[in-house]
């Protein structure tokens, strides 16, 4: 993406990062560090989420939702999750030249402190939109978008960053991934469902540039031909140094080929309302722990915790937890009578990160049901 043509009154600001309550990398920062902790690129959607529906909408009738939220979606889910965990996040994306685009830009730059100096507003392009309806523990989504604008080269894109998160796609090679890796950026790859049905790791050309690969259990087994997720994780380390396989309700399993470490962490039992964005939040938690140089098991536990907190709320970026939610959870589980001491020790690393001063009423309101209120003169 080229340097921004920002919405009126919202010019790009180099270093627009808003400090988090906790900086997980504080002990590691040095004057010659890259300007950004994590770099991302992708498509930003406007997400509109309807909640409180008793059942699926019925043809020919009108349904009223008891709740509604709006927020940036798409790649913004990952960017928001990273920023709320205290990582200095840079996003290169195209924004629509409409009120939706203005809203998403403002919410990300000013609301979340995400750097958009490599983003741009595309004249005459409408923002992609997704409407999500949550009911009966499930969700239904309808999306609309015009042909995306062509990519434009930029001398600073990708910028120097400690890490980048790349969405890998079969048969597709994104030049920026190799460029980022060549600058010393640690690339974390995730992947979606292979609609081609090939499930060929050789068909993911950018996997060779990744330090870590984070598929779910079904994807990992299909790509490797293994008959269980743990065997699939070990097989994946022939292609990438660190393999992390999410196991759904069973937690996650990880292998680090370089150190010989393995780790398995069970999932945290929660009442899941909406899984939208949970995968992005998991990746963000794992990236944060990796950049902070935590042990593999702590990284895995933290990623699982952040994902578990996110599914208890509706929406993608709306539900990404920050340190207030993490601190509130840590205080609550320690007060549960009969709580497993082994479980508390598993998350004991949080004691050195969070404090009572961080705890605020939870869940926090992250959005209002309108795109934006008019500002008083």
Automatic annotation (TrEMBL):
Any Pfam family the entry gives: PfkB
Residue stretches making up the Carbohydrate kinase PfkB domain: 65-321
Positions of the UniProt region annotated as Disordered: 1-21
GO MF, one example: kinase activity
UniProt KW keywords: Kinase, Transferase
Protein's name in the database: Carbohydrate kinase
Provenance organism: Streptomyces viridochromogenes (strain DSM 40736 / JCM 4977 / BCRC 1201 / Tue 494)
Taxon lineage: Bacteria, Bacillati, Actinomycetota, Actinomycetes, Kitasatosporales
């Amino acid at each position: 993406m080229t340097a921004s043509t920002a919405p009126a009154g919202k010019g790009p600001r180099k270093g627009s990062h808003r400090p988090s309550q906790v900086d997980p990398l504080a002990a590691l920062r040095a004057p010659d560090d890259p300007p950004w902790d994590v770099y991302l690129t992708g498509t930003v959607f406007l997400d509109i989420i309807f909640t409180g529906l008793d059942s699926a909408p019925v043809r020919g009738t009108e349904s009223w939702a008891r709740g509604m939220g709006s927020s940036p979606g798409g790649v913004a889910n990952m960017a928001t999750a990273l920023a709320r965990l205290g990582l200095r996040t840079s996003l290169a994306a195209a924004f629509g030249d409409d009120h939706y685009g203005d809203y998403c830009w403002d919410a990300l730059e000013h609301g979340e402190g995400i750097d958009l100096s490599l983003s741009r507003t595309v004249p005459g392009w409408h923002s992609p939109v997704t409407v999500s309806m949550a009911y009966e523990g499930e969700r239904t989504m309808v999306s609309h978008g015009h042909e995306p604008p062509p990519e434009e080269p930029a001398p600073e894109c990708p910028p120097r960053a400690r890490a980048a998160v790349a969405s890998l796609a079969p048969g597709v090679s994104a030049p920026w991934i190799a460029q980022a890796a060549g600058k010393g950026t640690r690339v974390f790859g995730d992947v979606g469902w292979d609609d081609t049905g090939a499930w060929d790791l050789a068909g993911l050309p950018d996997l060779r540039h990744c330090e870590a690969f984070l598929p779910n259990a079904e994807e990992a087994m299909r790509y490797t031909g293994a008959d269980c997720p743990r065997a699939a994780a070990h097989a994946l380390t022939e292609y990438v140094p660190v393999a992390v396989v999410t196991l759904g309700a069973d937690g996650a399993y990880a292998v680090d080929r370089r150190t010989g470490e393995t780790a398995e962490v069970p999932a945290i039992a929660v009442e899941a309302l909406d899984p939208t964005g949970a995968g992005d939040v998991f990746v963000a938690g794992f990236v944060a722990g990796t950049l902070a140089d935590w042990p593999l098991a702590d990284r895995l536990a933290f990623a699982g915790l952040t994902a578990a907190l996110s599914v208890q709320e509706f929406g993608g970026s709306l539900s990404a937890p920050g340190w207030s939610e993490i601190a509130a959870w840590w205080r609550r589980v320690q007060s549960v009578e009969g709580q497993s001491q082994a479980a508390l020790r598993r998350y004991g690393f949080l004691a050195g990160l969070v404090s009572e001063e961080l705890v605020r009423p939870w869940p926090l309101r992250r959005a209002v049901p309108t795109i934006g209120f008019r500002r008083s003169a």
